[in-house]
Every structure is written in C-alpha cells, then in structure tokens.
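Let's sit down with a protein and look at its sequence and fold side by side. We need material for that, and I hope you will provide a protein of your own picking. Once you have written the record down, we can walk along the chain together.

***
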Amino acid sequence: MKYRYLGNSNLKVSTVGLGTWAYGNDTFGRVEDQQSIRAIRAAVEAGVTLIDTAPAYGAGHAEEVVGRAIEGIRDKVVLATKCGTHRDGPKYIRDLSPKRIRKEIESSLSRLNVEQIDLYQIHWPDPDTPIEESVEELLKLKREGKFKYLGVCNFKVDLLKQISEMTDIISLQPQYSLLKRDIEAEILPYLIDHNLGSLSYGTLGGGILSGKYQKRPEFEDEKDNRAGFYPFFKKENWPQTQSLIKLLKEIAAEYDQTPAQTAINWAINRAGITTALVGAKNEKQARENAAAADFELSEAEVLALTEESNKVIENLSI
C-alpha cells in the first residue's frame, strides 16, 4: 500500500480507500452485516486506512456497520463521513441548515461510536441554504471538537472558491473513473494549485469496470439501484463500454491482476487524485482492492487506457 497526506493536513491516508455505500443495503443490493464487517476489517488488515461513509447510506445503517467494524482498531483508521444529505424513504434530501447539520453529526458520532470524526464533509450542495449559514455551524462544531478537518463532495470550482474564502477545507470528493473524467478540465487543476486533496468515488463505475459482467446486468435485487446513479449500465451505453473493459482485461492479464485492480491503479496514479474510494462486499474484494496499489502500470499502458477511455466517453449517452 502507498500513503499520501490529504491536502495540507496531517492525515496520512492510503491511496486505496474503502467506500461504504453498499453497506447501507439500499443501493448495491443486500449485504449481510457480518460480511460487511469482515470486509472492513480485511481492508484495514491489508493496509487501507481511509474509510468513507455517510448517514445517507441506508439511513445511517452503513455508519452503524462501520462503527461496529472499527471497534478496537479506531487508531488504525482515518474516518470520514458527511452531512447535508439524508434519506426520506427512497428519496435523498439535501439539507445543510444549521439545525440539520448539528443533528446529523450527533447521530453520526453515536452510530460510529467515536468521539471525533477525522474528516467531516458536505455531501452535496444545498441550493436552499446559504452556504455562509452552513459554514458558521460547521465551524462551531469543529471548535467543539466534533471533527478535525472539513471537506466537501460534489462541488464545482465556483463553490470551492466560495467556501475557501470562508474557512479552510482540505479535500474534495468527486466522482472519477475511466468512464467519468470531466473533473480533469478544471477541478483537478484547481485542487493541485490549492494543495487540496481528493477522495475520488465511483472508481469502478458502479462495478462495470470490474469486468465481471459478461452481459448487461438486470440487477434483479430490488435493493440494487446502482444503474440509476451510474448511467454506464444503460442499454444504449453498455456496448460503448466494452472496448475499454476488453483492454482492461488484456492489461490485467499481463500483471496477473484483475480488471478492477487495473482500473483502480490507473485512478490512483492520476495527477490530483490522493485516494480512490472503492467498495468491497466481501473480504476477497477488500484485499484485492488494497493490492491494486502494489504494482505499476507502464507509461504506454496508462496512455492506452486513457486514449481508449477518451474514445468511449465521447460516445456515452450521459
């Protein structure tokens, strides 16, 4: 495993982080809690230090699972969670009102069974709450010792500039993968110029870049709604992705790695990416994801993947 400092903070994080959306049991299908706990512990044993979660994942269920998993190993984990998005049945509600933020952090601390969160992040912008009000409350909570560092997710450059004028942030969490690279134009250069870290999510495009699907999946599990968030699974996009997945498989075979490991390795070695968050439903996936940091793609292979990615993205319907 490789480690990097997150932005200008003293948080040293693994280049492969663990995303926990699946443990909410409401977007990526059902996962038995004990299996999730074993996956989290396997990831930590394999060198993963950064665990990212959110109250919106299963209406707090993922946080509860993480809290149980890190009991006794809290000192080995950089813990990141979020505020500003909660569940109302199947709906995601964005609410960065001061009252909501305070309620959410207290609930998160309780579910995670910790006294302090290492990285507290705004999950999504809330157009109905002035950002000044949200930041004022967040700074109060920081002074109270509820969290160490502040980060944001899914912010564009204009909002990054706006919040940076009010307070220090150390990181952004954007979606980024071989199938989703729009942040390369403005956002990644901004992060580099301002010494901000990044925790990229969607590294495997919801699982499509793992290469495990021989045909377009139907996701019959009623709790599996990933296709609604990751458009690569749409009928019109599925054929467009296959040339990239074929290339991933070919390069992976050269290193005796999996296509998923190859896609992760490409992501963690892109300029401006500190950590690539990847989900793991079981111990095997957790260990394989962690091992993605342990080999080096050649410059020619990186270039080939990047060029094929460009061709595929141009033809996607997103």
User: Anything to note?
Assistant: The chain has a mean pLDDT of 94. The CA atoms of residues 84 and 174 lie 16 Å apart.
